[in-house]
C-alpha cells in the first residue's frame, strides 16, 4: 500500500466512528421530531455508506437490479468477505431494506436508539430457544413488508472465499413467506480483508441474481434450499471469491433448531 493510500486509510478509519455517531444522531432526530418516517430516515445511513466508500477510494458498481421489484419484500443473502460489504450495500443499493442485528447493539446509546427507530430488527443469539423466538418475530416483521439483508455464512470469510451457509436465513424466508435474493460481493476482500484495519482503494462489484421462491417450502426443506442458495451466490462470484471444495454447501442441520 502506498504512503498516500495508507494516509487515506488512516483518515477513513479515524473518521468512520465520528460519521457513525453523527448519522445515528441525525436519524434519531429526524424520526423523533421532524419527518418521523422510517423510509425517509434511510437517507442518513445511505449517505454514511457512500461517504465511507468514497473516503477510502472505493468505487462501487451494482449489477442485476433488473431482477428486483421495488414493490416486493425480499430477504437478500450474500457472501460476507469484508466490512465493506456493509458500506457497499447500505450506500449503493437503491431500494428500501432493513438490517438484522444482534439485540445487544440496540442497547448502545444513540446508535442503538437510532437502529430501533428506523426499523432495524433485533435477533437474540443467547440460546436456541430465544433465537427461535426472535426469528419468529423477525419473520413476522418481514412478512409485513420489511426487506432485510443477511449474511448466511454468519461471519466474515477469513480468506475471501465463500464458506458454508447456515440455514437460518432460509428458515427465516420460509417463515416469512418471501423470496430470497442471492447476491455476490466481489472485490471487497481486496479492499479490507478480515484482520486488517486500513482499507485499500479499489472497486467492489455487487451482483444480484434472480430471486429464489420459497412458496410451498416447509422448515424441513431448509437444508436443500440453503444448498440452492449457496450455489446461486457462488455463481455470482469472481474466481477469487468462489468456494473452495471443502467449503461448498450448507452446514449440517442442527437438531435442536429443527
UniProtKB/TrEMBL annotation:
Gene Ontology molecular function terms on file: 1-acylglycerol-3-phosphate O-acyltransferase activity
GO cellular component annotations of the record: membrane
CDD domains: LPLAT_AGPAT-like
One Pfam family from the record: Acyltransferase
Transmembrane segments: 6-29
Domain of life: Bacteria
Biological process terms in GO annotation: CDP-diacylglycerol biosynthetic process; phosphatidic acid biosynthetic process
UniProtKB keywords: Acyltransferase, Lipid biosynthesis, Lipid metabolism, Membrane, Phospholipid biosynthesis, Phospholipid metabolism, Transferase, Transmembrane, Transmembrane helix
Entries under SMART domains matching the protein: PlsC (SM00563)
Catalysis performed (reactions): a 1-acyl-sn-glycero-3-phosphate + an acyl-CoA = a 1,2-diacyl-sn-glycero-3-phosphate + CoA
EC number of the protein: 2.3.1.51
Record-linked PANTHER family: 1-ACYL-SN-GLYCEROL-3-PHOSPHATE ACYLTRANSFERASE (PTHR10434)
Domain remark in the UniProt entry: The HXXXXD motif is essential for acyltransferase activity and may constitute the binding site for the phosphate moiety of the glycerol-3-phosphate.
UniProt record similarity statement: Belongs to the 1-acyl-sn-glycerol-3-phosphate acyltransferase family.
The protein's name: 1-acyl-sn-glycerol-3-phosphate acyltransferase
Organism: Desulfobulbus oralis
Amino acid at each position: 500500500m502506498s504512503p498516500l493510500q495508507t494516509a487515506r486509510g488512516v483518515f477513513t478509519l479515524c473518521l468512520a466512528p465520528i460519521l457513525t455517531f453523527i448519522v445515528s444522531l441525525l436519524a434519531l432526530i429526524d424520526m423523533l421530531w421532524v419527518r418521523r418516517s422510517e423510509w425517509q430516515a434511510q437517507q442518513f445511513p445511505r449517505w454514511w455508506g457512500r461517504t465511507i466508500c468514497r473516503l477510502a477510494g472505493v468505487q462501487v458498481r451494482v449489477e442485476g437490479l433488473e431482477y428486483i421489484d421495488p414493490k416486493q419484500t425480499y430477504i437478500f443473502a450474500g457472501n460476507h468477505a469484508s466490512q465493506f460489504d456493509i458500506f457497499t450495500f447500505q450506500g449503493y443499493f437503491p431500494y428500501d431494506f432493513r438490517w438484522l442485528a444482534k439485540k445487544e447493539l440496540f442497547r448502545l446509546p444513540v446508535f442503538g436508539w437510532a437502529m430501533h427507530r428506523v426499523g432495524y430488527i433485533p435477533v437474540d443469539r443467547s440460546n436456541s430457544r430465544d433465537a427461535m423466538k426472535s426469528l419468529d418475530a423477525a419473520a413476522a416483521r418481514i412478512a409485513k413488508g420489511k426487506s432485510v439483508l443477511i449474511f448466511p455464512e454468519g461471519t466474515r470469510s477469513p480468506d475471501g472465499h465463500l464458506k458454508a451457509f447456515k440455514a437460518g436465513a432460509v428458515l427465516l424466508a420460509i417463515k416469512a413467506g418471501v423470496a430470497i435474493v442471492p447476491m455476490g460481493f466481489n472485490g471487497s476482500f481486496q479492499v479490507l480483508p478480515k484482520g486488517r484495519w486500513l482499507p485499500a482503494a479499489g472497486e467492489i462489484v455487487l451482483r444480484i441474481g434472480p430471486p429464489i421462491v420459497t412458496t410451498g417450502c416447509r422448515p424441513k426443506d431448509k437444508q436443500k434450499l440453503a444448498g440452492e442458495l449457496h450455489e446461486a451466490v457462488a455463481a455470482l462470484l469472481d474466481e477469487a471469491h468462489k468456494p473452495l471444495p471443502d467449503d461448498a454447501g450448507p452446514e449440517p442441520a442442527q437438531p435442536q433448531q429443527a
